[in-house]
Amino acid sequence: MSTLDIRTEGRVARVYLNRPELRNAFNDGVIAELTEAFRRLGADTGLRAIVLGGHGKAFCAGADLGWMRAMADYSWDQNRADAQGLADMLWTVYDCPLPVVARLQGDCYAGGMGLAAVCDLRVAAEGVQFCLSEARLGLLPATIGPYVVRALGEQASRRYFLTAERFSAAQAQAFGFVHEVAPAESLDHRVDELVALLVANGPAAVKACKKLVQDVAGREITPALRAETARRIADIRASDEGREGVQAFLQKREPAWR
User: Quick one: DSSP state of residue 20?
Assistant: First the structure.
């Protein structure tokens, strides 16, 4: 049985973790299916956005206990290979050319925070709890670390990596990890509103904007970077989509992609 529930509605794909009885915890099967799903969906030229969510009470509780028991007997090489699978999955979601919206309807712990962090937009329901619990088990959030630190911020990461304490959706929003917090009954409505904004924009422009943020974040503004960004805007201005978008604006009409 698949560990994911994947549905396509027009130009939007919805990927739901589908292990509610296990709080959507990871194991190697979930990781492999997520990797394949995002590789396939990211290459689908008919899609414009992906929503990532979970069925049940939790978005994702981190690692599956059964999987953790099995890993207790792994050699170093087996642990290294296993961790690389998670690292590859996180990169596949992060690097997906389509915008990914995280629908956080329930608690988000450990590896679940890593999965949320690789998404582009994160909307959480009121009452959702977040936790980087690895240190409590004598471990560390290494594989998810690069993404969580970017999304949560260095100072908050220093605290919550070390203390392994829980924090609320409101705190997550204050730190910048969550973009919006909505009442549980309004969560899907707000997610759909954001998806509609994404779909209304130029599809190539949205992909290029996503890549731009990833490429320039944290970089020194050097002559080489200034030249690169000038090239990027020239490329898109001269593209069919760029020309159509500007002409539609000047002519006060809807662009062809809508």
Answer: G
